[in-house]
Amino acid sequence: MKRYISALLVLTFAFSAFSQAYKIKVKVNGVSDTTAYLGYYYLNKKYIKDTARVDHNGNVIFTGDKKLDQGMYIILFPSLKMRYFDIIVAKNQKLQFETDTADLYKHMLVKGDKENKAFYEFHKFMLEKNKGIDPWYKWLKKHKNDKDSVKIVRDIITEKNKVIHTYWKDLHKKWEGHILGALAGAMIPIEAPEIKVPDNITNKDSVKQWHSYYYRKKHYFDYINTADDRMIRTPFLYEKIDYYLTKMVMQEPDSVLEEGMKLIDKAEGVAPKIHEILIRYMFNYKQKSRLMNMDKVFVEISKKYYLSGIATWADSSFLVKVKDRVNMMEMNMMGAQAPQLDSLVTIDTMLVSLRYIPNKYVVLVFWAYDCGHCKKRVPELYKAFEGMRKDGIDIQVLAISTGAKMKPWIKFVDDHHMRGWVNAIDAFRKTNFRKKYDVITTPTIYLLDEHRKIIGKRVVVSQIEEIIYRAEGKEIPESLKKAWKKH
Question: Which helix (H) or strand (E) holds 399?
Answer without folding.
Answer: strand 395-401
